[in-house]
């Protein structure tokens, strides 16, 4: 069984240790660090090296910003799962725009938290109602101006279908589907919304309502 190296950043020591103990109950998760700030984690290169996932409290007391924290962590090739009390939509919105895998409330039932960490560790996007609420009506989400056909192709491709299946379901050739995906990526890039990977495209599709948030009607 593969084991994923996970770090937890939360400046409430008792809370952090409690959650670290909880996450360590997942056999495939190895909690390698429990620290109060991003700087503390990165100050020990041997500790930070090879971390697969960082669970980041959005409200830290060191005057750091969410965007800076996520950028610094992603620069180490670690994925980031935002962890929050859920009382500040601006913080959640900043986290979502910065490229986190998802936004999860600390108050969620244990089974939900463990499932989110397990899925985030393997690179899955955690699309929660909190994330959807934070992005709803976000004035900083620039419109990529996708055509109806581009939205149709994106909805299938981002949901997991490969190009041949998308071609079959849309009546397009495989080469045309690939060209549509290239154009969709380009349009998102032009408005400052990364779309380099399939996970990025999945996030953009969620943000723009092209795909539904899992668990919502």
Automatic annotation (TrEMBL):
This is Response regulator transcription factor. The keyword DNA-binding applies. Keywords: DNA-binding, Phosphoprotein. Signal peptide: none annotated. SMART domains: HTH_LUXR, REC. One of its GO terms (molecular function) is DNA binding. Pfam families: GerE (PF00196), Response_reg (PF00072). CDD domains: REC_NarL-like. Residues 5-121 form the Response regulatory domain. GO terms for biological process: phosphorelay signal transduction system; regulation of DNA-templated transcription. The keyword Plastid does not apply. The modification 4-aspartylphosphate is found at residue 57. It comes from Cryobacterium fucosi.
